[in-house]
Amino acid sequence: MQSNTAYLLVSHGSRDPRPDMAMEQLARLLSEILPQGENFVGVATLEANIQPLHLQIKDFTDRVQAFGCKRVQIIPLFLLPGFHVMTDIPAEIAIAQEVIGAGMIMELRPYIGSYPGLGKFVARMMMTVKADVSIILAHGSRRAGSHAPVESIAASVGAVTAYWSVPPSLEIRVQELIAAGDQEIAIFPYFLFTGGITDAIALAVETLKLQFPSVSFQLAPPLGTSREFADLIWDFIKEEDKVFG
């Protein structure tokens, strides 16, 4: 792996301060496990920032260049390959590269939802909960094929899926499972950080408990900012660098 590499974590962004705080925590955890000389980790957001992403990238590269960094790897913290991942972020990186020039190498890494180790990470989370059936509840996207990664993970761990913004909804999926005889249902939010949507999910689960009092519902936390999640990111970076150099 080349030395003097810096890493920039890019998330969607929110007016809720909690995701930004979680991003900073994840950046700190990742910097602690990176090799010396490559532990420059920053954060940026696609939306809800006073600067567009390309200017955030430029500011970050200006800072790390002072420490001799010649390469920045940009890691999209997105779980599904929607429009932001496939279009918006590459476009912002292209603008930033044009402004910064050839003195800094910028590489766009795959979005985190495509990491092969993510399925095992989710499976370990599920092992901590006893239930008849588990639902992986993702945000959802109308972009064709964007649900494939989460559907693949669900199939590998024997779970079913539901989506917050597109069908099938959590309520519909719960009704189907109850009709099939399931009485213990675990719900795993397929989100990185706590925020407005996970608050709304928690409220929806409380409503389901009132609607179906004989059914046991368990709501897990989002994927979060654990050391294990930082390890997942670093392991993927190392494996990618073995392949592509």
Report what the structure shows:
With 245 residues, the chain is of the alpha/beta class. The protein folds into two domains: 5-113 and 225-244, Rossmann fold (3-Layer(aba) Sandwich), CATH 3.40.50.1400; 118-219, 3-Layer(aba) Sandwich (Rossmann fold), CATH 3.40.50.1400. Helix content is 45%, strand content 18%. It has eight helices and eight strands. The protein has helices spanning 17-33, 53-65, 83-100, 118-126, 148-157, 170-179, 196-211, 227-244; strands at 5-11, 40-45, 71-76, 105-108, 133-138, 160-163, 184-189, 216-219. The strands form two sheets. A four-stranded parallel sheet has the order 2-1-3-4, with helices on both faces. β1 (5-11), α1 (17-33) and β2 (40-45) form a beta-alpha-beta unit. The longest helix has 18 residues, at 83-100. It starts with a strand and ends with a helix.
Element layout with pairings:
Layout: E1 5-11, H1 17-33, E2 40-45, H2 53-65, E3 71-76, H3 83-100, E4 105-108, H4 118-126, E5 133-138, H5 148-157, E6 160-163, H6 170-179, E7 184-189, H7 196-211, E8 216-219, H8 227-244
Parallel strand pairs: 1-2, 1-3, 3-4, 5-6, 5-7, 7-8
